[in-house]
Write a structure and sequence with these properties.
3 helices; alpha/beta; Rossmann fold; globular; about 35% helix; about 15% strand; 4-stranded parallel sheet
């Protein structure tokens, strides 16, 4: 599994294409039968450790693409801060798992 993380509009999907994937092989829907999932951050629920339920399905994908959401001004809204934290925790877990599978 390859994890691609970067800023909004930074060319993450274009980079996935250099790995041999076409736009038709990419989807933002977890249930889609595509090897590449983008907008991973949109799937993370706003609850502590809610991302754990996503792991089995995410590990079936070949490439995961996530927008970096941890930079910039810290949101005032507690739910948005929690969501950003959970996206970060998920990406750390996925990065750790991708190293194990190399």
């Amino acid at each position: 599994m390859v994890l691609i993380v970067g800023g909004l509009g930074a060319g993450k999907r274009a980079y996935a294409q250099t790995l041999g994937y076409t736009p038709r092989q990419m989807s933002p829907r977890l249930e889609a039968p595509c090897p590449v999932l983008y907008d991973l951050q949109a799937l993370v629920p706003v609850k502590v450790d809610g991302w754990h339920a996503l792991l089995p399905a995410l590990l079936q994908k070949e490439v995961l693409i996530c927008n970096e959401v941890g930079c910039g001004v810290v949101p005032i809204d507690a739910k948005e801060r929690l969501w950003r934290e959970e996206v970060g925790r998920l990406c750390i877990a996925l990065a750790r798992l991708s190293l194990i599978h190399i």
